[in-house]
Amino acid sequence: MSLEKASLFCISSEELQGIHSEDCHAFMILLLKMDAHLHFIGDEQALLRKINFLVYELQALCEGLEENDKIHVLNSFFFEKNGFHSIFELRPSSKNFSFQKLLNTKSANSLLLIILYQFFANQIDLPIFAINMEPLQILKWHQKEKCSYIDLNRKGKVFDRNEILGILNHNTSNGDCFETLTIKHIFSHFLEKLSQSLQKENLDSQLMTCLDIALDIDENNLKALCQHGLLCYKIGSFQQALKDLKKYFSFTDLYSAPDDLKKIYQQLLLWRKAEEQPFTPSDILH
Predict the structure, then answer these.
(1) pLDDT of residue 284
(2) 3-state DSSP: the chain helix, strand, coil percent, rounded to 5?
(3) Nearest C-alpha neighbor of 47 from the set 59, 34, 60
(4) DSSP 159-206
(5) pLDDT at residue number 270
(6) Which of 61, 92, 218, 272 is most buried, by the most CB atoms less than 10 A from its CB?
(7) Would you say residue 1 has pLDDT above 50?
(8) Ramachandran area for residue 106 (φ above 0: left; ψ -120 to 50: alpha; else beta)
(9) What strands lie across the sheet with 138-142, from one edge to the other?
(10) Cβ density class 158-187: b for 16+ within 10 Å, e for less
């Protein structure tokens, strides 16, 4: 795929609204659409049919059940019957952020398992949501009189707040570990992790797509903005690179930036100055 073709992928205003309005179904469709684009599948319809089939099967198993029974059915369906499991990687591969791979091999990065498990839970009316913990593996289950916590690395084992504290002591994220994450937050986190893998693998066209989407979701995402500017510089799109880095440095201190980043920014400023400098016939003749 060329970088020009990568720009053909865009998020509609309706899809953006779905993310900001916490529409889990719209979120899943957008993820599958993006997955199909990045991994050259064609379109997302085949993936969507697989997801829908699993949802219908799970809903049939849970019909008429109480919440406490539904969670047992969900865990059995997710981990035992379908065998979904996460892959531990020191350097995550971009292929393990693919829903196509997850649905075909039942294994993927733990972030995809969190997204799929939460989606299934919501489809059977279980209020279960990921919490602000790194790496993402714990979900909060909002019950009528209390909250419980579900560890996907232990096949959906349910803990109370006191029991989960031992796990949360290893948390590396900033902020409240018990805070429920929004769909926007999860999507931004997914795009950030996928972008890191694509950058290491030098997959520039797919990386450009991810960064474009990240900035569609949040135009002030400074990490994505900086990455986008550097990638544009790499491929020779100097005007866009300068625009990105100018905005980036309007929010961050230039002098505390890494030397390589400052050097690129200074080169872009010199390029712009040369572009804007008028020339006369004497410039050409001499």
Answers:
(1) 40
(2) 65, 10, 30
(3) 34
(4) E-HHHHHHHHTT--SSS-TTPBPPHHHHHHHHHHHHHHHHHHTT-HHH
(5) 93
(6) 92
(7) no
(8) left
(9) 128-130, 138-142, 147-151, 157-159
(10) bbeeeebeebbeeeebeeebbebbebbebb
Give residue for tokens 């200074």.
266
Q: How far apart are CA 157 and CA 179, in angstroms?
A: 19
Q: How many CB atoms sit inside 10 A of residue 6's CB?
A: 19
Whether the CB-CB separation of 42 and 36 falls below 8 Å is answered with: yes
- The DSSP symbol for 156 reads T
**Strand, helix or coil for residue 277:** coil
Contacts of 183 (CB under 8 A, 6+ apart): 19, 22, 23, 24, 27
CA distances for 194 relative to 12, 38, 55, 111, 132, angstroms = 21, 11, 26, 10, 18
- Over residues 80-108, mean pLDDT: 91
**Which tokens belong to 135?**
């790496």
Q: What is the pLDDT of residues 15-66, one digit of tens each?
A: 989 999 999 999 999 999 999 989 877 778 999 999 999 999 999 999 999 9
Q: Residue length, the chain?
A: 286
Per DSSP, 280 falls in state -
**CB-neighbour burial class of residue 1 (10 A; exposed 0-12, middle 13-18, buried 19+):** middle
Is the predicted pLDDT of residue 6 greater than 70, yes or no?
Answer: no
Find how far residue 283's CA is from the centre of its chain: 51
Among 98, 54, 129, 121, CA closest to 193: 98
C-alpha to C-alpha distance for 161 and 9, rounded to whole angstroms: 42
**pLDDT tens digits, one per residue of 158-170:** 887 777 776 666 5
- Condensed to tens digits (0 to 9), the pLDDT of residues 177-225 reads 778 899 999 999 999 999 999 999 999 999 999 999 999 999 999 999 9
